[in-house]
């Protein structure tokens, strides 16, 4: 999956990444689990001395038999080398009963460990990948070839490159493996319970200096007076020259209750450097921000417009969205703008949960198509929207995946007008599985169509109305004395178009 945000200084706690069910919906589309083999058992055994005649045992069918014969010849080619014995007990149609496969085991322990990861990844692809032809290749033979190529390697990085190479032959850029370190970063973007000091940092492209993008409101860094634009100079006495943002974030992360000392250069007029000791704490990172935009309708009536920005579909996004809508309702808003611009997606289940907050009845939220071509509509069951106020959804070319599912569900069911620019066009759904070594495998398991059966993949969703400054009056200039979040929103040309569309909808008396 795409990176959800810049590097965080946060450490994810060990929680299930995604809830086990869809609540009111009827199927899980995006899930995470620790490694669970598609087979009943996979036993990996290491032996230092195995007769060269050990190759394959058991009765097999068709493609499985060709695969075993090929592996047998390869194993024999290694003479008396150590081998990896893989015992498989399967309900898969390719295997009739238990069998054992021998693979040459690398003498490098770290490569040996990646060989097991290879088998895990291969098995998951074999059972779940959306294309049952595996891009018109013999997937069983691909395992054998990759294992042989991995045998003479001496480093884990090189071995992982071989796994990536194997996955690339599937012709799907979204099916991939990421390292344990990268997976931690993914979880930080998807989990709501984190540990750190509440800093978002990134490297300034021209200088390479590490600059604060923002601070989590109320977090340790914000309380210490660190601001957007400040430069991070040292962490625990170590200079950060040449250190990338991810490495710096790793140094800032840590268990709640510990501390970290940082030196920061003020982005203000004095550019002074100061040292700050920051406590690490549990921090809730919400992907939701909201505001009330004062709005004067064409008849001169002053109303309140609720604005909700959803930055990513993280694990806490649905709960945070519910709380935001309910709070805005208590403040008497009359209409809503839901901003999905530059939202790259995340957990599909969360996107469906959010859709149900705006819709009633038994509406179809999305249609999935599995590897056999079977289409399954995912419907609400007796849904009850939190609000029926008019709604506009903002989208652009950065709105992808779960954002497109949500936008499609609200648009095709007549609930919302889409304003902005055509969306990214990612109409495939991935499962993510944590493997035994802490790495993670992303597998495309289905494609989806909108409720009106529009294909989104590589096409995107066109808006009902594009937003350009030429459509209405030019965006308002904001003075230096008035840079509040609300005034910034009022100067956004797309929000101005959204306000206009809501006025038009209200003047027509259209129910929503």
Automatic annotation (TrEMBL):
Keywords: Hydrolase, Protease, Serine protease, Thylakoid. SMART domains: PDZ (SM00228), TSPc (SM00245). Pfam families: PDZ_6 (PF17820), Peptidase_S41 (PF03572). InterPro entries: ClpP/crotonase-like_dom_sf, PDZ, PDZ_6, PDZ_sf, Peptidase_S41A, Tail-specific_protease. It catalyses: The enzyme shows specific recognition of a C-terminal tripeptide, Xaa-Yaa-Zaa, in which Xaa is preferably Ala or Leu, Yaa is preferably Ala or Tyr, and Zaa is preferably Ala, but then cleaves at a variable distance from the C-terminus. A typical cleavage is -Ala-Ala-|-Arg-Ala-Ala-Lys-Glu-Asn-Tyr-Ala-Leu-Ala-Ala. It comes from the Eukaryota. GO terms for cellular component: chloroplast thylakoid lumen. It is found in: Plastid, Chloroplast thylakoid lumen. GO terms for biological process: proteolysis. Residues 190-267 form the PDZ domain. It is an enzyme of class 3 (hydrolase). GO terms for molecular function: serine-type endopeptidase activity. Belongs to the peptidase S41A family. Protease involved in the C-terminal processing of the chloroplastic D1 protein of photosystem II. This proteolytic processing is necessary to allow the light-driven assembly of the tetranuclear manganese cluster, which is responsible for photosynthetic water oxidation. PANTHER family: CARBOXYL-TERMINAL-PROCESSING PEPTIDASE 3, CHLOROPLASTIC (PTHR32060:SF22), TAIL-SPECIFIC PROTEASE (PTHR32060). This is C-terminal processing peptidase.
């Amino acid at each position: 999956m795409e990176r959800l945000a810049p590097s965080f200084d946060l450490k994810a706690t060990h929680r299930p990444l995604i809830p086990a069910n869809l609540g009111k919906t009827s199927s899980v589309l995006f899930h995470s689990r620790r490694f669970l083999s598609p087979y009943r058992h996979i036993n990996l055994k290491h032996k230092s001395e195995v007769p060269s005649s050990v190759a394959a045992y058991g009765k097999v069918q068709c493609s499985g038999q060709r695969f075993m014969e090929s592996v047998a010849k390869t194993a024999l080619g290694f003479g008396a080398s150590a081998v990896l014995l893989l015992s498989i007990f399967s309900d898969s149609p390719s295997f009739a009963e238990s069998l054992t496969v021998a693979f040459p085991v690398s003498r490098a322990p770290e490569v040996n460990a990646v060989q097991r990861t290879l088998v895990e990844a291969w098995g998951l692809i074999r059972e779940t990948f959306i294309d049952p032809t595996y891009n018109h290749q013999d997937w069983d033979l691909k395992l054998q070839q990759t294992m042989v190529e991995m045998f003479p390697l001496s480093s884990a990085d090189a071995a992982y490159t071989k796994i990536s190479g194997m996955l690339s032959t599937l012709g799907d850029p979204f099916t991939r493996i990421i390292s344990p370190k990268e997976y931690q970063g993914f979880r930080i973007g998807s989990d709501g319970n984190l540990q750190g000091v509440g800093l978002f940092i990134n490297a300034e492209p021209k200088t390479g200096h590490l600059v604060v993008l923002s601070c989590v409101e109320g977090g340790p860094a914000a309380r210490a007076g660190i601001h957007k634009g400040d430069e991070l100079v040292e962490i625990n006495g170590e200079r950060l020259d040449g250190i990338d943002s991810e490495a710096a974030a790793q140094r800032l992360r840590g268990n709640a209750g510990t501390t970290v000392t940082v030196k920061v250069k003020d982005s203000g007029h004095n550019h002074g450097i100061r040292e700050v000791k920051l406590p690490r704490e549990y921090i809730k990172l919400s992907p939701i921000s909201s505001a009330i935009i004062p709005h004067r309708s064409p008849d001169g009536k002053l109303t309140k417009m609720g604005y909700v920005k959803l930055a990513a579909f993280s694990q806490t996004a649905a709960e945070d969205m519910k709380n935001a809508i309910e709070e805005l309702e208590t403040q008497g808003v009359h209409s809503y703008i839901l901003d999905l611009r530059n939202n790259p997606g995340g957990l599909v289940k969360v996107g469906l949960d959010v859709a149900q907050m705006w819709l009633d009845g038994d509406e179809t939220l999305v249609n999935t198509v599995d590897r056999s071509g079977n289409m399954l509509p995912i419907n609400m069951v007796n849904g009850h929207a939190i609000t029926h106020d008019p709604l506009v959804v903002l989208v652009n070319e950065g709105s992808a995946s779960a954002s497109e599912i949500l936008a499609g569900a609200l648009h095709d069911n007549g609930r919302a007008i889409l304003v902005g620019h055509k969306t990214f066009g990612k109409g495939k759904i991935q499962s993510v599985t944590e493997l035994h070594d802490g790495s993670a495998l992303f597998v495309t398991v289905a494609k989806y169509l909108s409720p009106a059966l529009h294909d989104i993949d590589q096409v995107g969703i066109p808006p009902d109305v594009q937003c350009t400054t030429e459509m209405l009056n030019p965006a308002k200039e904001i003075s230096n004395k008035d840079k509040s979040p609300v005034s910034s929103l009022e100067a956004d040309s797309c929000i101005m178009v959204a306000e206009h569309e809501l006025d038009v909808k209200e003047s027509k008396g259209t129910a929503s």
